[in-house]
Design brief:
alpha/beta; 539 residues; 7-stranded mixed sheet; 8-stranded mixed sheet
Amino acid sequence: MAAVLPRSAATLVLLRPGGSGPEVLMIQRVQNAAFLGGAYVFPGGALDQADSDPRSFRRVVGLTDVEASARLGVPQKGLAYWVAAVRECFEEAGVLLAVTQDGKEIPPEKAQALSRKAPFIETLERANLYIPANRVAYYGHWITAPGRSRRFDTRFFVAQAPAGQQGSHDAAEALHHVWIRPQAALERGEKGEIELVPATQHTLRDMGRFAEPRLAFEYARDQPEIEVNRACWAQGKDGAKLFRRADPQYYEIHWSDPQESGQTSYDLVPGVPKRLDARVTRLIAPNPGMMTGPGTNTYLVGEQELAVIDPGPDIDSHVEKIVSEGKGKIRWILCTHTHLDHSPAAAKLKAATGATLLGRPAPAGQDASFVPDRVLANGDRLFLGGVSFRAIHTPGHASNHLCYLLEESRMLFTGDQVMQGSTVVINPPDGDMRAYLESLEGLLAEELAIIAPGHGYLIGAPHRELRRLIAHRLAREKKVVAAIGKLRAASVEELLPIVYDDVPARVLGAATRSLTAHLDKLVADGMARADGGRYALVQ
């Protein structure tokens, strides 16, 4: 598909109090518009050159360009997005978010009397008005998917509407404007009465959660980081498909196809190698299942010489595929841990290639065939085939578990510390919930770009995912405490259907093991006591 560079743009989500909750200002774009003709959107458009003019910046209060640029993650002229958002709202919808020199909102009749066709900076200067950027919160970042003749790199902002300004559409770019409750707009969209694009739908759902405009503004203002929503195309067994940030394939597609060619694969197929980037190829073992997903991920990493991470289960066809893909370059074999779906192929791969084994010895009851030539400790650095790794000891899922950080790209190979689309089982006695949570916390201190898990797709936004896993485990722990408190003294069997009432019956066997790990942690933390297989809270 032809490469079209996105234009910088800004959109303002304006909210006012309504009889049944907040209302948002929306406009319907004219049918013949070159972009999103006929759709209902929030006022906004492309940045003009004048938006970053020093004269415009002098008309902004409450935020400096340095602060605005840092918030957006751009080197400079970030303040132009705030100017553009306010300008577009005024020009398209007739609502002017501006204040006098002493910081007071302008009367609605004054806003209505101002020209929407004159250059915006001149309008502000003639009326001696200022843009209150501290009342406009950066909220979202959306980039049009490849394949359109026009693409926009749009920053979304949220503000409370100035009192009394009703607005009016300009009839040039908008043929209708309306103040509407977010939920009502979504319902009309579902009925086909109005057209809403995904970015608009997402924003309406988000804004519809708040009882008043102030809360929506404070939510937007206080977000610690804003993630980009950049829809992407990929190929697979069902043909070309478009993926968005909520899809599990999303981050892997972007990582493996940074040029947005749309030709990378979205399928997870055992035995078919996939080039993830210039240094890393993934080969999935043919061991799909409830605990392994599509199969165990084996990674070949390097350039002239290769390291294999997690050779996987002892399946001859998989070992043969690894050797074939390695093309005589395999020199090292690294294992994250010694569960039977990750390390048993190491011995055969070593025999076939003469590679050096690295990792930590197997605890009792795990893969005794894995005998590392070098035992790795936390923080060990490895210089292998032109790439460098750092080993990070992450006990919890297994006491000998290691993650490997590829320092050149900040890709973290996590084995079963982090799994795509699921949480991992913590199986005592070798599995330890307290250690697992501490290991997750430790990874938050690392500078990470992407996660390469032991099963499933690459995982983006690593720190967000780590925080999600920690929050999930702690929320489960609260359910355990609440259930014990309700039953006063209870066995694992009695607690299981209460604590794991949100999982299907087929996974309750695995859940039993993680529940036991939670109970062991509560005992170790001094919050519960165990007596004859029954657990009670410590008063």
